[in-house]
Design brief:
Strand 2 and strand 3 form a beta hairpin. The protein contains six helices and four strands, in the order ααααββββαα. The chain is mainly alpha-helical. It has a two-stranded antiparallel ribbon with strand order 1-4. 44% of the residues lie in helices and 7% in strands.
Length: 149
């Protein structure tokens, strides 16, 4: 399954527009927390070098991030990004009606059905979460939430 997920991931990446946020560091090759911190500090300090300026920063902790994915909401965003209907339907099937149980030793819990979140350990989960949150950018906050002091 992981091999198939990798094929799907490559296909999704080939279909994405090049306009995705370049300041998205999570789950990208050759990007790290250190790079995100140093880029943020550089941008902030460069801006503050100009007289009479200020900065606003928003830090969000997405605890259990993959658990917050609502498949129908994600599919809407993927459609807006230009992914075709067949691929979106496959992703919807991949994320919904998943059976889960817990096994400890020889004991097994009852099975429950999950229809939100992405499978833990899935190759696709990081990419899907990134695409779900790709439109949370500074431009969105600046244009819709401009506050003047």
């Amino acid at each position: 399954m992981k091999c198939f997920e990798r094929l799907i991931m490559r296909h999704i990446k080939s279909q994405l527009p090049p306009s995705l946020d370049p300041l998205q560091f999570a789950y990208r090759p050759n990007c790290s927390t250190d790079e995100a911190i140093s880029t943020t500090l550089h941008l902030a300090l460069t801006h503050l070098d100009k007289k009479g300026t200020y900065i606003r920063m928003l830090f969000i902790d997405f605890s259990s991030a993959f658990n917050i994915i609502v498949p129908q909401h994600l599919i809407g965003k993927l459609s807006l990004l230009g992914l075709n209907t067949s691929l979106c339907n496959w992703i919807l099937d991949f994320l919904t009606v998943r059976l889960q149980f817990v096994r400890i030793g020889s004991s097994t819990s009852n099975t429950t059905t999950l229809s939100t979140g992405a499978p833990q350990g899935s190759v696709l989960s990081p990419l899907l979460f990134t695409l779900l949150t790709h439109d949370c950018s500074d431009a969105q906050f600046e244009s819709h939430h401009q506050v003047r002091w």
